[in-house]
Structures are given as structure tokens and as C-alpha cells.
């Protein structure tokens, strides 16, 4: 019946899809999914490898026993994950399942997409005349990640964070358990990635471009505007530096906010975090991360830029 309906209405559907708004929507949707999917698969593979091959006691030995010290250690460890924010969510979920304290896993989740070598190299290439942007992005992102980890350790409650669930593969070989975990996480996280990409494309298509030009004239409003834009656009952290560099009408501090907030909280990330840790967690964690990201970006920008 659906195929018959589509065949009967193919003329109106074709005209609707050829409209400029729909062309923009499809471009953004496909771009977000194509950018994010390889790194989502990378994160899922790392998550499955951690769950299958790494002994549970490894992380207890690798991280400091005191949570207050484990948070910055996990934040700095985020530099070794060569991926974007889509990869960090399943890896953070695997760390929580392996017994890592949630505050340290959350610090890793926030820092990994923003301070890894690939992202910092892309930032240096995008801002060849402003090399201080690399240091500012590293410092601001690490500060936000550690601060959110300590904040969760201080104020977070166990019932706010749902431990990530996964099917049991006990009794199977390691290879079967690994591929079973990969299939489960790709289907689970990939669906929410598509939902987030659809939301980002919808908002990108309806936000007037004149709003950006108006906001750029006010220093405080420009920082908040680019932070909100980073949430709406949901660009991969390995490509966002080039988008930020193109927004030349905004100050360097405002563009720093774009680079700090985007990899930590955007529409697709909110959907993936809600799927992994629960909607109650995402509703508390995302606004706090956004507010802290804006404040730290403004402070670091005032000092370094």
C-alpha cells in the first residue's frame, strides 16, 4: 500500500524534494551521518574490544584509586582515542560496564573528541594564522571535561545514570563475543545517530542566516550564538575547525566556544547519550555541560586569545 501511494504521488513528492529547503535538509542529514558513521564504528569496535579482551581489573590498576585523581587522568587519556564524539560514547559506556567510576568515564567521554591529535592537527590547519587556537581548544576542553567529572562526582546520584546494558555473550568464544557486541552497538547507537542527524538537519534548514550576522556584532551574544549553533549543526569534531574558521565575522573567542561545546553536546550526541546512559542522565548532563563549556570558553579566550 505504501509503494502504491508513493507511485501515485511521485509528482508532488519529487517537487517537494527539489525545493531548496529540502535540498539543504538532505545535504546536512547525509553529511552528518557520513561524517559520523566511520567514527561510530571505530568507537563500537573499541568498546567491543574493551568488553571482550581487556580484563576487568585492568582499569582498576590503570587509574588512580581516588576518584578525584581518576577524573583528570581519564581526561588526559582521552587524547589517545583517534576519533570524534560518536566514538567516545560507546567507549565511555564500556568503561562504566568495566567498573570505572562514572565521573572518570564522563571526563573521558568529553575530552576524547576535543583533545585527540587528529582534532588538534585539524585545528592547526584550519587556523594557520592563529596557532594559539590549538592551545586554547586543548586547555578549555580539558578544563570542561575535568570540571564535569568532578561535578558529577560531587553532585551526581547513582539513580541518574543507567548502567549501559548489553546482551550476554558468555559461553561463546572471544571472536563471537566481539562481533556480537559490535552488531548490537552499531544497531543501537546508529539508530540514535540517524535521529539526531534528522533533528540537526531540520533545525539547520529553518534557522535564518541573518540571525548569525546580527549576533556577531555583540561579543557576549556571539559566544552564546556560536555555542548554540554548534549544538544545532552537530558537526563531527574532526571537521568542525574548518567550519569555525569560515565564520570569520565572529571573534576568535566565539569560535572557540563553537569548538569546545560542539564535541561535548549536540543533537546527535544528546540522543546517543540518552540511549547509552538513560534520558534522565542526558537531561541533567547536557545543560550543565553546555553552560560550563560557554563559561570556560569565554574565560580561556579572554586569557589566550
UniProtKB/TrEMBL annotation:
Manganese as a keyword of this entry, yes or no, is: no
Q: Which residues cross the membrane?
A: 28-55, 67-92, 104-127, 134-152, 186-207, 219-235, 281-304
Protein name in the entry = Permease
Membrane topology qualifier:
Multi-pass membrane protein
Where does the protein principally reside?
membrane
Family (UniProt): Belongs to the UPF0718 family.
Compartments annotated for it: namely: Cell membrane
> Does the keyword Methyltransferase belong to this entry?
no
Tell me which Pfam families the record gives: ArsP_1
Instruction: Tell me the keywords, alphabetical order.
Output: Cell membrane, Membrane, Transmembrane, Transmembrane helix
Assigned GO CC terms = plasma membrane
InterPro entries xref list: DUF318 (IPR005524), UPF0718 (IPR052923)
Naturally occurring in which organism (per UniProt): Actinomadura barringtoniae
What PANTHER family has UniProt attached to this entry? UPF0718 PROTEIN YCGR (PTHR34184:SF4)
Amino acid at each position: 500500500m505504501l509503494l502504491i501511494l508513493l507511485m501515485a504521488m511521485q509528482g508532488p513528492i519529487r517537487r517537494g524534494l527539489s525545493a531548496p529547503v529540502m535540498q539543504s535538509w538532505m545535504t546536512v542529514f547525509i553529511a552528518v551521518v557520513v561524517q559520523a558513521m566511520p567514527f561510530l564504528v571505530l568507537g563500537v569496535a573499541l568498546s567491543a574490544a574493551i568488553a571482550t579482551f581487556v580484563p576487568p581489573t585492568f582499569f582498576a590498576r590503570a587509574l588512580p584509586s581516588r576518584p578525584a585523581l581518576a577524573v583528570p587522568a581519564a581526561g588526559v587519556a582521552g587524547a589517545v582515542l583517534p576519533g570524534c564524539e560518536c566514538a567516545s560514547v560507546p567507549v565511555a559506556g564500556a568503561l562504566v560496564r568495566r567498573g570505572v567510576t562514572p565521573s572518570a568515564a564522563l571526563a573521558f567521554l568529553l575530552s576524547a573528541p576535543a583533545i585527540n591529535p587528529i582534532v588538534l592537527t585539524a585545528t592547526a590547519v584550519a587556523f594557520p594564522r592563529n596557532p594559539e587556537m590549538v592551545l586554547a581548544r586543548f586547555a578549555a576542553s580539558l578544563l570542561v571535561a575535568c570540571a564535569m567529572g568532578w561535578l558529577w562526582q560531587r553532585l551526581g546520584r547513582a539513580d541518574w545514570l543507567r548502567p549501559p546494558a548489553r546482551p550476554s555473550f558468555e559461553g561463546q568464544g572471544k571472536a563471537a563475543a566481539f562481533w556480537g557486541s559490535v552488531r548490537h552497538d552499531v544497531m543501537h547507537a546508529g539508530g540514535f545517530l540517524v535521529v539526531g542527524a534528522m533533528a540537526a538537519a531540520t533545525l539547520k534548514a529553518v534557522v535564518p542566516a541573518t540571525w548569525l550576522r546580527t549576533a556577531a556584532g555583540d561579543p557576549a551574544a556571539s559566544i552564546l550564538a556560536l555555542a548554540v549553533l554548534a549544538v544545532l549543526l552537530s558537526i563531527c569534531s574532526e571537521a568542525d575547525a574548518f567550519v569555525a574558521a569560515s565564520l570569520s565575522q565572529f571573534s576568535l573567542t566565539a569560535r572557540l566556544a563553537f569548538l569546545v561545546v560542539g564535541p561535548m553536546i549536540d543533537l546527535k550526541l544528546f540522543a546517543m547519550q540518552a540511549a547509552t546512559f538513560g534520558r534522565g542522565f542526558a537531561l541533567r548532563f547536557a545543560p550543565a555541560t553546555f553552560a560550563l563549556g560557554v563559561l570556560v570558553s569565554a574565560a580561556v579566550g579572554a586569557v589566550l586569545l
